TrEMBL record:
GO CC annotations, alphabetized: cytosol
Pfam family, one: PUA
Upper taxonomic lineage: Bacteria, Pseudomonadati, Pseudomonadota, Gammaproteobacteria, Alteromonadales
Annotated residues for binding of ATP: K9, T167, D168, T209, G210, G211, M212, N213, T214, K215
Record's protein name: Glutamate 5-kinase
Family to which this protein belongs: Belongs to the glutamate 5-kinase family.
UniProt binding sites for substrate: S49, D135, N147
Organism: Pseudoalteromonas holothuriae
Pathway as given in its UniProt record: Amino-acid biosynthesis; L-proline biosynthesis; L-glutamate 5-semialdehyde from L-glutamate: step 1/2
Length: 366
């Protein structure tokens, strides 16, 4: 089997076996499987939930569910969680390292590259990175919000071959298997569309922050980056090894054959858009079918506030998302030149400027 970089996301329901505290026997079994894959030559990265659950087990009195209280539990539990992982992996003489990330760490290009370089060095030295969102300090503006999407970002940072999302369900079903006995497992997905998204529900437990919907978001990001994604049931015996042997009961999202380059991977996984540009049908076809840059002639409307270099979303006349990219103009400048020919931009603004609105090298199709 070809050596691969594998990112494994472990949800709270998996690590607690459905309870409210970390389930050590389950964690021991997961570590054993990771050690087996390490022996086969694979590199392992864990995106681990469980800090809040670990913190809850350290308090003698019950705690509420406010943001401040959850952040307190995460602050208490994060050290406990990494210590437990360190102890379990030490049984197999495998060193581990902790990385706590927020959205700001991947939105900022320099910090993104730093995180990528750190991950690369850890894997080079046969260390298992254990990654979680920095819940103790993250605010709503910088939170990724769930470890499913975080794991997709980590998979891109690690240049992974495969992303495994372990949860309390065997995969994506045609209906909710908890209430519909006729629900059928969807074994393979080539492309995520609106019909598939309609099948996704809310979080299956009160402990987790991500449901099937966030897993589809993560799979969509990973697919476009050229990373195969698998959703599988974390409680199934030897599940990680079975996924690698392609014999697991699971849902596999086939990676796209033309993965994005490094800069576009960053655009795909990282920044939040600050504005929207609506473009006409001709511009849509040029961008989607011909790989063209966005020109001022094709711009119909501009909404939101942004400056030069900010990320914007690009939609078709019906408001459907087409792409996102780095805009070469502010929203005020773009409002002055929308619909103009590129040769007229300098005259409209009164100074020399770029002849494209969003260059194709700074754009990722969605």
């Amino acid at each position: 089997m070809k050596q691969q970089i594998i990112v494994i996301k472990l949800g709270t329901s998996v690590l607690t076996a459905g309870g409210i505290h970390l389930h050590k026997p389950r964690m021991v079994e997961l570590v054993r499987q990771c050690a087996e894959l390490k022996q086969q030559g694979h590199h392992i990265v864990l995106v681990s939930s469980g800090a809040v659950a670990a913190g809850r087990s350290q308090l003698s009195q019950p705690c509420g569910d406010s943001i401040a209280q959850k952040q307190m539990l995460a602050a208490i539990g994060q050290g406990q969680l990494i210590h437990l992982w360190q102890t379990l992996f030490a049984l197999y003489d495998i060193p581990v390292a902790q990385m706590l990330l927020t959205r700001a760490d991947v939105e900022h290009r320099e910090r993104y590259l730093t995180a990528r370089d750190t991950l690369t060095q850890l894997l080079k030295h046969q260390v298992v990175p254990i990654i979680n969102e920095n819940d103790a300090v993250a605010t709503s503006e910088i939170k990724v919000g769930d470890n499913d999407n975080l794991s997709a970002m980590v998979a891109i940072l690690a240049n992974a071959n495969k992303l495994i999302l372990l949860t309390d369900q065997a995969g994506l079903f045609t209906a909710d298997p908890r209430i519909d006995p006729d629900a059928q497992l969807i074994a393979q997905v080539n492309k995520i569309d609106d019909a598939l998204r309609a099948l996704a529900g809310d979080s299956g437990t009160s402990l987790g922050t991500g449901g099937m919907n966030t897993k589809l978001q993560a799979a969509d990001i990973a697919q476009r980056a050229g990373i195969e994604t698998v959703i599988a049931k974390g409680s199934e015996t030897n599940i990680v090894v079975k996924v690698m042997e392609q014999v697991a009961t699971s849902t596999t999202f086939i990676r796209f054959d033309a993965p994005l380059d490094g800069r576009k991977k960053w655009l795909l996984c990282a920044p939040k858009s600050t504005g929207t540009i609506t473009i006409d049908i001709g511009a849509c076809e040029a961008i989607a079918m011909q790989g063209a840059s966005l020109l001022a002639k094709g711009v119909m409307a501009v909404t939101g506030r942004f400056t030069r270099g900010d990320l914007v979303t690009i939609t078709n006349p019906d408001g459907q998302l087409l792409a996102k990219g780095l805009c070469a103009f502010s929203e005020q400048e773009l409002g002055m030149i929308k619909g103009c020919h590129s040769s007229d931009i300098a005259n409209c603004l009164g100074y020399k400027a770029s002849n494209v609105i969003v260059h194709r090298d700074d754009m990722v199709l969605l």
